[in-house]
Each structure stands twice: as structure tokens, then as C-alpha cells.
């Protein structure tokens, strides 16, 4: 009988911490896409963007700490992390991603690769 | 980003949101906040958005709130990303804090298609019951990283006004 011992082996590092999926807006135009994600409470320095192969991972840690000496009498937000993973299509150029944070909203611009950009061909009449 | 894949993912948005928020559900029932969009909100029309679940007139969003306290003060925090400071309206009514706001849809680019629109825009209202009487004249508010923070010094008595009613 075949033992499936390997399947039962759990990688402790593979277990990810609980994270909230942030809502996003995505707009696509001729030269690329722009993604907006709501990440309230995440300061710029606790935001991490990773591109591996064609996968983009957005991860943000909530930078809020309980004010010193204060007791929580009501707390709704207890998951201190956001995470969302996207797969990027080949026409996008992950090398040229630019990001900015503004009032808890992340804005990512991912341009299309040169070859996928619309091209204007000049025709000269001689 | 492959759009059809993204779309696939978003069709099951509510499933995944529910999954991600599962741990919050019990403590965060009050966080689900309705957003009502008006012409002021400046949202794209239905025809400009691919998301079949998109309805310009309404949206829901989780606005997480916390209340902290010590002997002297209450601190209320509310997560409302993407606001302008001047679009908040904050009121203290006896032992309830009322936060109103208008979240505008401000995107510089008018060309292109909206593939996904999940963030909520429009006007919202949140009421937060305060566990102690406060001096609203000494209250202060700040807004940072999309989190609104309101500090309310406690009134001398330190206790909320209470009226006991008898069932007659």
C-alpha cells in the first residue's frame, strides 16, 4: 500500500498569517493599468510589494499600536495585515511598477511593455 | 495582470471577502458601512465599468472602528481610507459619536476602462456609542494613513448619562 506520508508533512513556513483582502479598483488604458487598493492604517514603510515571475503580491502591515496606557473597550479591527496576490499578464512590464500611498490608499501604476504599447506609424508623403 | 483571470477572481469577490473577514466577523458586525453615492461622488457610469456587480448608487465597505480609554480620555479610531480632511463631519451627541463623510471618486485619468471597482464611494454615516461622558468642547481629531482618530477628554463625572426606564 502506498503511504502518502509526504502529503501530510506540513511546512511550518508555508503557513501564512491571517490577512485581510483589501478591496481594489483597477483601470486599464492604452499604456498600462492603474490599481488602487484600500489599505487604511498601513504606513508607507510597512508596505511591501513583491514581483516573482508573473505574480504581484501586495502586503501591508497595520502600523497602529494601542495608545500607551489605554484599554480597548471596543475593537473591530484585529487582523493587522492585508494581503492580495495578482497574476500579471505578459504584456505588462513589472520592472516599471511605480507606487504611492496617500491617506491609506495605495496607487500602483504598471505600464505595458514597449512591444504592447500602441504605436503610431508616421507616413510621409513625398 | 491578465484581465480574464482577475475577473474570475472578482466574480467570487464576496466569497473571498467573506473568507478574509471571517475572523473579524463576530467582533466587526458594526463595521459594515453603507456608502450612498450621489452626483457629487463623481463615480463612473455603469457603462464604463466591466464589473457586472458594480452599482454606482451604492456600496458597502468595512470601516473598522476601535474605542480605547483610560481615566482621562476616550480615543476612537475609524478606518476610512482615501478621504479629504475637510470631508469629515464629526459630532458628539450626548454619549454617541457621529461621523459623517463623503468619499469622493477622484481619478485623474478619464480614459480607459474600469475593470474592477470594489472600493466604496459616496456618503457614509457611522455612530459610535461612547462608554463615558465626554467634554465635546475639548475634543480633537486627526487623520493619518487613512485612519481617523478622535480624542475625547472624559467629563468630570466619568460616567455616561443613564436613564432607567420601567416597563409599565
Structural notes for this entry:
The complex is a heterodimer of chains A (126) and B (168). Chain A is mainly beta and 126 residues long. Chain A has a domain at 18-63 and 78-115: Immunoglobulin-like (Sandwich), CATH 2.60.40.790. Chain A contains one helix and eight strands. A four-stranded antiparallel β-sheet of chain A has the order 1-2-8-7, with no helix packed on it. Chain A has a three-stranded antiparallel β-sheet with strand order 3-4-6, with no helix packed on it. Chain B has 168 residues and is mainly beta. Chain B has two helices and ten strands. In chain B, the strands form three sheets. A four-stranded antiparallel β-sheet of chain B has the order 3-4-10-9, with no helix packed on it. In chain B, strands 5-6-8 form a three-stranded antiparallel β-sheet, with no helix packed on it. At the A-B interface, strand 1, strand 2 and strand 5 of A face helix 1, helix 2, strand 3, strand 4 and strand 7 of B. Strand 1 (24-29) of chain A pairs antiparallel with strand 7 (113-117) of chain B.
Amino acid at each position: 500500500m502506498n503511504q502518502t506520508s509526504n502529503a501530510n508533512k506540513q511546512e511550518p513556513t508555508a503557513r501564512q498569517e491571517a490577512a485581510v483582502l483589501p478591496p481594489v479598483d483597477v483601470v486599464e488604458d492604452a499604456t498600462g493599468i492603474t490599481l488602487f487598493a484600500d489599505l487604511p492604517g498601513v504606513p508607507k514603510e510597512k508596505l511591501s510589494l513583491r514581483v516573482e515571475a508573473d505574480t504581484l503580491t501586495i502586503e501591508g502591515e497595520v502600523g497602529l499600536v494601542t495608545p500607551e496606557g489605554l484599554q480597548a473597550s471596543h475593537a473591530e479591527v484585529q487582523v493587522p495585515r492585508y494581503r492580495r496576490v495578482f497574476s500579471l499578464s505578459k504584456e505588462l512590464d513589472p520592472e516599471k511598477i511605480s507606487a504611492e500611498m496617500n491617506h491609506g490608499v495605495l496607487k500602483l501604476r504598471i505600464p505595458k511593455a514597449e512591444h504592447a504599447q500602441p504605436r503610431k506609424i508616421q507616413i510621409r508623403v513625398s | 495582470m491578465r484581465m480574464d483571470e482577475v475577473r474570475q477572481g472578482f466574480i467570487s469577490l464576496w466569497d473571498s471577502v467573506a473568507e478574509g473577514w471571517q475572523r473579524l466577523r463576530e467582533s466587526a458586525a458594526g463595521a459594515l458601512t453603507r456608502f450612498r453615492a450621489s452626483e457629487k461622488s463623481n463615480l463612473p457610469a455603469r457603462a464604463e465599468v466591466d464589473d457586472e456587480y458594480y452599482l454606482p448608487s451604492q456600496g458597502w465597505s468595512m470601516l473598522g472602528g476601535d474605542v480605547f480609554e483610560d481615566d482621562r480620555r476616550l480615543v476612537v479610531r475609524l478606518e476610512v481610507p482615501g478621504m479629504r480632511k475637510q470631508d469629515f463631519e464629526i459630532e458628539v451627541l450626548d454619549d454617541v459619536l457621529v461621523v459623517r463623510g463623503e468619499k469622493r471618486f477622484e481619478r485623474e485619468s478619464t480614459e480607459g476602462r474600469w475593470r474592477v471597482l470594489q472600493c466604496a464611494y459616496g456618503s457614509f454615516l457611522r455612530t459610535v456609542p461612547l462608554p463615558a461622558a465626554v467634554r465635546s468642547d475639548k475634543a480633537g481629531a486627526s487623520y493619518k494613513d487613512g485612519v481617523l482618530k478622535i480624542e475625547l477628554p472624559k467629563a468630570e463625572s466619568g460616567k455616561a448619562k443613564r436613564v432607567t426606564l420601567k416597563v409599565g
